[in-house]
């Protein structure tokens, strides 16, 4: 049995948290490969090491040296090493790192050093070998992960290595320079390692006991999701649930390796299991509810639209021409709704785009609806089960919430509705209560 464990920023925040990490790893000998983040926040207004490292880069660009900002990094790691009682010569490592940041003049290089230093400390504390992510993770000339190269490297590196600590968040680009994933990317590193070593389980240790059915800032004390499929996580993450980096699913999915989201500070909690469809046993009709505010809907109506060849393509080519992404495209016989994230619409773009659509497809009318929230009710259990939509829509009708758009994909994995931004919180509460 092999488990890959990734520990997030709060699990690395100070010596106490790192001691807790050690006890978790030692409690199960199959926890062989450990991926770590940079130290995160210790308290509410604390600053994450990664954020300070981006400041180091800014300081290098403006003054030629990261001296002032790096002093904060230095102090933080010296304190951790001292509190852990390690004999590691961290001062020398820090001196070298500071020098390299000054020389590299690269935001990615600078930001990556938080994970690098974390992994050096944790490997010394656990007595596990340190394996630099730059040796095994490679990006291509488009900045995308070079999957084949990376897979080969990871599997050959760990074939004869029983245990190791690996820094998350970065690899090397095709030119040999350090490059990071997007923020929160250590989750992706963990997934890549789990895939490469053919792990039985990828444990993602964080500071919450798994995915919640919905945002606790909106619904009081929502339930934890016990089990969820890869696809459902993708739907929920797209809509704003942020427990796991959205790109962390793909690598483990290829080998159907489950992910267990666990809480470092409550290791006894079961957490959430993310599994492939064929391992999923539905225990509730809906799995989760997530949403995002601020969409714009272009409601286009034209009678006999359905028999006009190329209608949708012509509408979309105008949208594409403005470099705008379409989020959803629900359609009826004579209507088409183009749903766009409002943040994409720079001043003036909306009016120009609508005028061009008018010219191109001569619709009966175009109605622009702004300040729309999209709310997705996600659940494998909904498929082929009569009455789910009725429960949802009845509850919303009773709560007097006007639904402005409905989109149910044919996968029946979710129902997305559009409501006014002002109804957003009420709508999520109503759906949660209808199913719980
Ligand atoms: N340290 C990086 C960040 O703060 C990456 C990570 O923690 O996953 O985004």
What does this structure look like?
With 436 residues, the protein is of the alpha/beta class. The chain folds into two domains: 3-276, Carbamate kinase (3-Layer(aba) Sandwich), CATH 3.40.1160.10; 288-435, 2-Layer Sandwich (VC0802-like), CATH 3.30.2130.10. The protein contains 14 helices and 15 strands. The strands form three sheets. Strands 3-4-2-1-7-9-10-8 form an eight-stranded mixed β-sheet, sandwiched between helices. Strands 12-11-13-15-14 form a five-stranded antiparallel β-sheet. The protein has a two-stranded antiparallel ribbon with strand order 5-6. Helix 2 packs antiparallel against helix 3. It is globular. It starts with a strand and ends with a helix. The structure holds aspartic acid (ASP). Aspartic acid binds at residues 8-9, 37-38, 48, 50, 114, 168-169, 183-187.
CATH architecture descriptor of the largest domain: 3-Layer(aba) Sandwich
Total tally of structural domains = 2
Gross geometry: globular
CATH homologous superfamily (4th level) name of the largest domain? Acetylglutamate kinase-like
Task: Determine the structural class based on helices, strands and strand pairing.
Answer: alpha/beta
- What average pLDDT do the residues reach? 94
CATH class of the largest domain reads Alpha Beta
| Largest pleated sheet | 8 strands, mixed
CATH third-tier fold name of the largest domain: Carbamate kinase
Count of helical stretches: 14
Radius of gyration: 24 Å
Helix content: 25-40%
Task: Provide a short characterization of the protein structure.
This protein has 436 residues and is α/β, with parallel strands linked by helices. Helix content is 39%, strand content 20%.
